[in-house]
# Entry
Amino acid sequence: MKNVLETDVAGLKLKNPTMLAAGILGLSMESLMSVANAGAGAVVSKSLGIEPRHGYGNPTVVQVEGGVLNAMGLPNPGIQVFIQEMAENRLTVPLILSLYAFAPKEFATAATKASTAEVNGLELNVSCPHASGTGQELGRDPKLIMDIVKAVRETVNMPLFVKLTPNVTDIVGLAKAAEKAGASGITAINTVKAMAIDIETSKPILANIIGGLSGSAVRPIALRCVYEIYESVKIPIIGCGGVDSWQTAVQFLQAGASAVQIGTAIATKGLSIFREVNDGVERFLKRKSYGSVKEIVGLSHRS
Amino acid sequence: MGYRTEANVMRTTQIERIDDEHQLVKTLHFKDPLCAKAEPGQFIMVWLPGVDEIPMSISSTHLDRMAAITVGKVGEATKTLHKMTKGDLIGVRGPFGNSFKPVGGKVLIVGGGTGIAPLAFLLERLVATAQNIKCFLGAKNRRELLFHSRIRSLLARKVAAEIKTSTEDGSLGHKGLVTELVEAELTAHSVDMVYACGRESMLLEIFHLAQKHKVPLQVSLERIMRCAIGLCGSCSIGKYRVCADGPIFTDTQLAEVAGEFGLLKRDFDGRRIST
# Structure
């Protein structure tokens, strides 16, 4: 029987349109394998840099209305160590490495190192809202996005996704810049810059004060970003931001996403969220008599 | 399985009472209805405003919506907790994770250092379920033996109960390691369940002994914690997340993570380092 969930995103063959979002669990190979076994169509590692990084002190995660606020500070073992650990890789789904760096050249160096391992794609983190000198500090500027994507494109030949920040006035301009420079796809969105305060102590709760908001609270923002980007670029889009059910996954697909990434919902629903979304999307496709999930990508633009 | 959103909300609360257990360990009591419903083995995240947020096992719960944590002085955060006085504010979220499962029959409890804290809480439940309870407590010296009198009074009501102590300097009970008592016990008597908490080298030793004597085991593990809700991966051990799949692990689960348990943990940057 034909798998209606099977899809293709910038050359990546996926058995279903769900992926693990960067920053969630992907600090070790074994946790990525747990996510794949739970039914994800692809997994994305934690953002990796050239050097290992401890990240910020606690509190790094605070729950707020409708989501979770985090300022982890990009903790990671460094790309070299991660690649060594990939010897334990028994993944049966594509693995995308998320990379961060502080300059275009450094992105190219990180990508070169990544390309020495069995990696199926790269996602450039130019959108972390709470790290100095990297993330959205680079990715708010379309010119810098172009420089970064070009530098990486010249270095490696594999699917290259650019994860964008919503903390700008014009996310479409960023997407266009990424496409023009040779990106294979866009991931939208990273977290929304936010904070939380405890009134009894009057202190900001996060050690870093400022963090990024994820979860259902950001979903309408993410959906709008995907919808707008879809109108302006031809490369595929991966939707990310508050997907916590099959219905919300379908919303992203109809807005123009070819696949969706899931992160925060793992906390509230556990790893079974991947099966829940896939089973629900499959039932929806059958009920609506679609032969493939690809048929509903961008449907809201044609209705 | 997902976490309870309600429990993950940070609540600021006052320290209501402080007990000095010994020079290096204090028990801090605070009011929090959710923490007061914690099961033995569960942990909470304790926020010290402006300093840090650390995972702590619940060491007791009381009527009047009170709960307590028992804190050894080991790092900056725990030193801050030791300086706190009645009325000072801490933030709490949780309880998180699974709990020890009380069983019937003959049980052996093995605690080392501050690892005795969640076990004393467990013992409050076990006195109702188990027929025979043996409790082995280890410490560096007599003064640092935690909750000795609390445990003695809990077991006083039980006919088939025994406490043994071991100290490294021999100032009380067996001179040496508590694992030596465990080895002798498992060799001589049948046991239906072992519960253990303490240094991971001790837990590994007990795991080997339990495997050898084919006795089921439940241990409490510790790793670097950040989110406490199964998202960040900081507390990974093999395929498990200590915060969401633990902190209590069975002998079967420990066997699955044999390459890491007792040997390796993840550092703040995710690299594997020695435990």
